[in-house]
Amino acid sequence: MVTNKKNIPVLRDRKAALFAFTPAILTAVASAYVPMEAGLVLPVFGFLIMAVFFGLVVLWWQAETERQSLAMQLADLEQEERTPTAPLVLRRSMHSGSPATVLRELAMFASTQEARAEISPMPPERVQATCFPEPSLLPSMRSPSTEEISRVRLVNQAFEADRIELHLQPIVSLPHRKIRFYEALARLRLADGTLLAPSEFLPILEASGRASDFDQRVLMRSMTIVRHLVARGSEAIVGVNLTAHSVAEPGFLWSLAGLLDTSPDLLGKIVLEMPQHSWRHLDGDHRAALATLRERSVPFSLDGAADLRFNPEALADLGIRFMKLPADLMIKAAEQADGRYAGPELDVRDFASALRRQGIRLIAERVDEDDMVPMLCDLGVPLAQGFVFAAPRPVKPGIAGEQTAPRPFGLEDAPALLRRTG
To answer: Fewest C-beta in 10 Å: which of 30, 32, 74, 210?
Structure first.
């Protein structure tokens, strides 16, 4: 079935030939098999004529149906082309944040657009108009301010000068509050004596690709501290935080194995702490590197938990021996009738015992109020960390191999700005 220049469906090929030769074929058959003297010639020819007529009617009806269907499809297509696309929603103006923050927001926006495209696929001719808005309507990327540029420059200068300082915060047992081990918390001191917390300088180092170098320097300083503690007869261990950027970097965990192999006497004294996000996104290479570290008796700790969902058996298989959970999340979960904070996680009253059965010790972190301690004891939490017990204290530069920050001219008597960071 095709259409001519007037969009009228016509027959072609086999249908047309069959329709054209059917009367002749039927006439020849009738003349051969119907006797003339039987008086059936006229009825047979009448039947043939009626059959051809009804055949024409059926073919016309089919052609008309196809023509109407084609017309409806063309009308729908024209209506779809005339229908405006979904209005473009302008994102909020990026009026604050560092250049790294701006780039991170743009990356999140692109990921959102890709996810929407996977959920509701569109024709190829409309993908460009929908997923990529008009550039003139997008918010322009502002230039960083002079203060931000100065902060980035000062942080990079301090990092290049290796002015990294370590502070130790003890982790105590409950309820006796005896020190069990320490966590090494890194700080960066600027040239003017200002001491920055990780949240203030790590985004800058991550944006410049220096996060892995920073973590390696902190680990080396921590190894020096552990060696000093061992020389004094202490059995305390030291936890070292690893950033998510460093863990995700290919080959970083393998480099830690090589670094720890240089000091076999310290194996088991260094606890590598990784954020919850990193533990949930391990690939094959990460798992192989962690298995190598686990064979060297390197304990791991889950840090930076954003929720209370976990599987004790799976964590134990990864080599995790400590798990840090925010004290406020556990207390809020304990206040619920079923002991759950949000979702299908275990009852918070069973956390400590479930982890202990797998060889994992629970640590309540960010304990900053005295009234939290009795509630944590009721939950059976064995270890805790926070300002209630002790604030982070700086390590002497000679012990950790740190460099003394030079004071610029005119700032000899200026006090160092120390922030209360944990």
So the answer is: 32
Chain segment 305-342, per-residue pLDDT in tens: 888 888 999 999 999 999 999 999 999 888 887 666 55
CATH superfamily of 155-400: EAL domain (3.20.20.450)
Nearest of 328, 331, 390, 327 to residue 363 by alpha carbon: 327
| Exposed/middle/buried for residue 398 (C-beta within 10 Å: 0-12, 13-18, 19+) | exposed
Distance of alpha carbon 209 from alpha carbon 211, whole angstroms: 6
CB-CB neighbours of 270 under 10 Å: 22
Can you read off the two tokens belonging to residue 289? Answer: 């590197």
What whole-number distance in Å separates Cα of residue 286 and Cα of residue 292? 10
Over residues 355-392, the pLDDT tens digits come to 999 999 999 999 999 999 999 999 999 999 999 999 99
DSSP string computed for 253-309:
HHHHHHHHHT-GGGTTTEEEEEEHHHHTT--HHHHHHHHHHHHTT--EEEE--SSS-
**Residue 102 and residue 112: Cα distance in Å, rounded?**
15
d(CA 29, CA 252): 89
Rounded CA-CA distance 384/370 in Å is 12
Contact at 8 Å (CB) between 86 and 130?
yes
Tokens of 17: 């030939």
How many separate helices (H) and strands (E) can be counted in the chain?
16, 12
Contact 271, 237 (CB under 8 A): yes
